[in-house]
Amino acid sequence: MALPDALQRYLSRHRGHRAEALWGLALSGPAMLLMLVLLIGPLLAITLLSFSDWQLGMPAMGWVGVDNYRQLAADDVFWQAVRNTAVYVLVVMVGAVGLGLLLALLIEGCTRGKAIYRTLFFLPVMASLVAMTIVWEFLLHPEFGLINQLLMMVGGEPRSWLRDEDWALAALCVIGIWHQAGFNMVLFMAGLTAVPRTLYEAADIDGIPRGFTRFRLITWPLLGPVTLFVVVMTAINAFQVFDTVQILTQGGPSHTTEVLLLTLYREGFEFFRTGYAAAMTVVFLGAVMLITLLKTRFLEKRVHYS
Fold first, then answer.
1. Would the pLDDT of 301 be above 80?
2. Ramachandran category for residue 207: left, alpha or beta (phi over 0 → left; psi -120 to 50 → alpha)
3. Sign of CA dihedral 157, 163, 167, 171
4. Looking at the DSSP assignment, which residues form a beta bridge with residue 63?
5. Dist CA 184 CA 234 (whole Å)
6. From CA 171, how far away is CA 5, in angstroms rounded?
7. Rounded Cα distance, 240 and 261, in Å
8. Which secondary-structure segment (H or E) carries 89?
9. What is the model's pLDDT at position 51?
């Protein structure tokens, strides 16, 4: 007995949707598997380890509940690392974003030599950070460093930049800004090329003066999406500071340059307190995710996408 036409069309459409869903699952399966193995699996493993007393190399582990988190709350070095990391992220984020935008505007305003300037300012991004950190160590050397030589030429007093409690973290911030500004410059230049020229022509007709007024009314609002992306990426990269601190100061003097990743590394790979280091990792990841979500939520309201 033949089915009614309406029922046949319904079954045919239903089979089509089911086949389409199966194809979707099959195509996204490899990506979901990779996400499970490389992202979700390690996160779950590190979270479970944070509730244990496992030490690297030990054959067994014990369940300690939230003891590791209680120790973190009472650990002065951990809180010093949190404060130093917060200061570093804030200073590097403001400095690298501001300097990157300034360089992009200056280069975009040049009539000749744009490629040369772009290459020069992008070099710190391409160079090995470890190698360039060693160069900075020579530049900041208290006896024969170029910075102190220039200071003495203008009548200043030489300083031990990396051993002075008042200047060590500031020196690391300068290196962080220097390293990230070139990348931000490239992103801002890409954003500037997307600003319609017709808006500037309309500004000429309306008599809007060039310079800061035109930047405030036209350029800056249209750079909103790029700025949001640059701010978030710069902050995340600044949170990951480790190489420069490990090479130049090792967290000293007196923990004034102690940062979260350095403390985490010491606990996990020098003191072999893997469970404690895992608890620190969970706090670190939670802080990065929270700040990223807050920035995206609140800054996106001020961003114009069209």
1. no
2. left
3. positive
4. 52
5. 8
6. 78
7. 7
8. helix 76-108
9. 93
Residue 147 token pair:
């910075």
Of 206, 231, 300, 272, residue with least CA distance to 54: 272
Residue 147 has pLDDT above 80, yes or no: yes
Burial class for 164, CB neighbours closer than 10 Å (0-12, 13-18, 19+): middle
Phi first, then psi: give them for residue 87, nearest 5 degrees.
-65, -45
DSSP state for residue 300 in the 8-state scheme: G
260-280: per-residue pLDDT in tens? 999 999 999 889 899 999 999
Q: What's the CA gap between 85 and 240, in Å, rounded?
A: 9
Under 8 Å CB-to-CB from 252, ≥6 apart: which residues? 163, 168
Q: What does pLDDT average to over the chain?
A: 87
Q: Identify the CA nearest to 192 among candidates 215, 219, 232.
A: 219
Whether residue 158 has a cis bond before it, omega within 30° of 0: no
For residues 74 and 70, what is the distance between their CA atoms, to the nearest angstrom? 7
Helix (H, G, I), strand (E, B) or coil at 74: coil
Neighbours of 275 (CB within 10 A): 26
For residues 167-180, one letter each, b for 16 or more C-beta atoms within 10 angstroms of the residue's C-beta and e for the rest, the string is bbbebbbbbbbbbb
